[in-house]
Amino acid sequence: MMHMSKKCLATLLLAALSLMPGCASVSETHAPTSVEIQSIQTREFDVPYKIAFASVVDVFQDLGFTIQSSDFTTGLIIARGNTANQSVGLLGAMSEVRGKTVWNVGTAHLEELGNEKVSIRVSFVTNTKVMFEYGASNESSKAILDGEFYAKFFEKIDKSIFVRQNLKSRSNTD
Asked: Are 65 and 81 spatial neighbours (Cβ–Cβ below 8 Å)?
């Protein structure tokens, strides 16, 4: 009888182990591919290029960004915003942090696809600069790859396009 329960226990143990994921399995959180990144950062709009370009500038400004450069011909817009200065005290035993600055840079590229159709790709990077004593500093950048973040940004562009189109149609009827 004792021999039988060891056999049952061994069988149950093997069955349980076979249901568990192995060490060689692929992690559910993986680094996105360039195609995946492009898909969350790009949308197409059925609108004239001029309205799309102005709408993207409006959304950047509505979110507190400052347009650093823009070129209507190439469709490139670069904006900087959300600057925050923080004093973070001590970092490590000997290095005193004098301040930490965090800012975001957003870029947009608009491409005219044809008859009143525009492709807009936006990307955002969070930059951090930590200042230490004696003028030393450390800078780092991290791309924002959150799909929900980009979806909300494109919703704002869509709303801005809607407003501009309605203003344009109103001024044509006056």
From this structure: yes
* Rg value, the chain, Cα: 26
11-48 pLDDT, tens per residue?
443 343 343 344 333 345 778 899 999 999 999 999 99
Q: Is 101 exposed, middle or buried (0-12, 13-18, 19+ CB in 10 A)?
A: middle
Q: Cα–Cα distance between 58 and 52 in angstroms, integer?
A: 10
**Can you give the residue range of the structural domain that contains 119?**
40-173
Domain count, the chain: 1
Distance from the Cα of residue 15 to its chain's centroid: 43
CATH of the domain at 82: 3.30.530
What pLDDT digit, counting tens, does each position of 76-90 carry? 999 998 655 443 333
- Of 115, 124, 114, whose CA–CA distance to 151 is shortest? 124
- Is 125 part of any domain? yes
Cα–Cα dist 134/170, whole Å: 60
Is residue 151 included in any domain, yes or no? yes
Closest by CA to 138, choosing from 98, 94, 79, is 98
In a domain, 32, yes or no: no
Report yes or no on 59 lying in a domain. Answer: yes
Reported as type and span, the H/E element at residue 164 is helix 147-173
